[in-house]
UniProtKB/TrEMBL annotation:
Pfam families: Aminotran_1_2. Keywords: Aminotransferase, Transferase. Its EC number is 2.6.1.17. This is Succinyldiaminopimelate transaminase. CDD domains: AAT_like. NCBIfam families: DapC_gpp.
């Protein structure tokens, strides 16, 4: 067996299952889960219809590069969303969901024969980054987010000797779980570091279409273009239909950026068997070509967060994020509960599931930045999310406060 498999840590939801293994929730309260970030709004009917209409394509092998119409759908969306002009033949590539691609990309980019390769990622983070780094033969380095700066990642905390060994940097904007969006100045800093040390930047942007401000989140390719980096050198953006169009089961997304990286990734995926099926391609073309359903979806999240956040704010340190569909809340110290104990007791007493923040981070530089926090995914209908918030308020108000010296 590959010995690198032994370096992988249990996935957060496996840890959650173990945490809850002996919990018996109250039977009189219906279960409400805010634990998993799985979109639950309805899939648009036209996407389903396009999927069914494309079933005739099952009789042929699909090309790994995808149909020309699909790649043109990608570049058309990039032009409308970000004002970018990319070559559909050389600068975009379909992938079977951003998760699969984010993992596979590290296997393409990392050269394990070089001394002590490093993959830098934010902390807290999406655990795929860590697993991809480990199985590529690299060492992850965790850059902490700073609550005092709207959870911006403290890239300055990464030592220069780490940057010198870095081959790949994962960024996530809007961030999971914090919802923070990277500003242009932060992108400029990372591009300068990439130029100096030669590492590749993988920009995870799967939450880009769920936002709460008037201005859409800045994308990595958009930032590069604004800074005159129109060749997108050493930059690849990853996006997905899962959150944008409520089709997590479709497993459809694309990557875009540096043509040289796209070429190498296509070579890897040709051997890896990463081709997208014809029906999924047909459904994806339909989804990327329509914006009305995305606007409706965003409005649902905005209404939901507007209803839930004020309910929780009096009892938790929580605020409306820049984007995404998570609330990243700090548990009051006066409750005397760890994030694990809080999640376990909440399920046991009120049948609401939340994810302990420490499961989404690693202890690094002397601290786990997810400790004493919980992630709440507001993916259910508004009424269910409001009910969950009300139960959380009742739960916290029922707890005795700890005496402080």
């Amino acid at each position: 067996m590959n010995p690198l498999l032994n370096r992988l840590q249990p996935y957060p939801f496996e840890r959650l299952r173990q945490l809850f293994s002996e919990v018996v929730p109250p039977g009189h309260l219906p279960a409400i889960s805010l634990g998993m970030g799985e979109p639950r709004h309805a899939t648009p009917a036209f996407v389903t219809q396009a999927l069914v209409a494309g079933l005739g394509g099952l009789s042929s092998y699909p090309a790994t590069a995808g149909e020309p119409r699909l790649r043109e759908a990608f570049t058309g969306w990039l032009a409308r969303r970000y004002g970018l002009q990319l070559n559909p033949a050389t600068q975009v590539l379909p992938v079977n969901g951003s998760r699969e691609a984010l993992f596979a990309f590290a296997q393409t980019v990392v050269d394990a024969s070089r001394a002590s390769p490093v993959v830098v990622c934010p902390n807290p983070f999406y655990q795929i980054y860590e697993g991809a780094a480990l199985l590529a033969g690299a060492t992850p380095w965790y850059a902490p987010s700073d609550p005092a700066r709207n959870f911006a990642v403290d890239w300055d905390s990464v030592p220069d000797e780490v940057w010198q060994r870095t081959q790949l940097l994962y960024v996530c904007s809007p961030g999971n779980p914090t919802g923070a969006v990277m500003p242009l100045a932060e992108w400029e800093k990372l591009f300068a570091l990439s130029d100096r040390h030669g590492f590749v930047i993988a920009s995870d942007e799967c939450y880009s279409e769920i936002y709460f401000r008037d201005t859409p989140p800045l994308g990595g390719l958009e930032a590069a273009a604004r800074l005159g980096r129109t060749d997108f050198r050493n930059l690849m953006a990853f996006t997905s239909l899962s959150k944008r169009s409520n089709v997590p089961g479709l497993r459809s997304g694309f990557v875009a950026g540096d043509a040289a990286l796209v070429k190498s990734f296509l070579l890897y995926r040709t051997y890896h068997g990463g081709a997208m099926s014809p029906p999924v391609q047909a459904a994806s073309i339909a989804a990327w070509g329509d914006e009305a359903h995305v606007i409706e979806n965003r409005a649902l999240y905005r209404a939901k967060f507007a209803a839930v956040t004020p309910l929780l704010a009096p009892v938790l340190d929580v605020a409306l994020p820049d984007a995404g569909f998570y609330l990243w809340a700090r548990i009051p110290d006066a409750l005397g509960l760890s994030d694990e104990a809080f999640a376990r007791a909440l399920l046991a007493q009120y049948n609401v599931t939340v994810l302990p923040g420490s499961y989404l981070a690693r202890e690094a530089q002397g601290a786990n930045p997810g400790a004493q926090r919980i992630r709440m995914a507001l993916v259910a209908e508004t009424a269910e999310c409001v009910e969950a918030a009300q139960r959380i308020v009742q739960f916290i108000q029922s707890l005795p406060l700890q005496k402080t010296s």
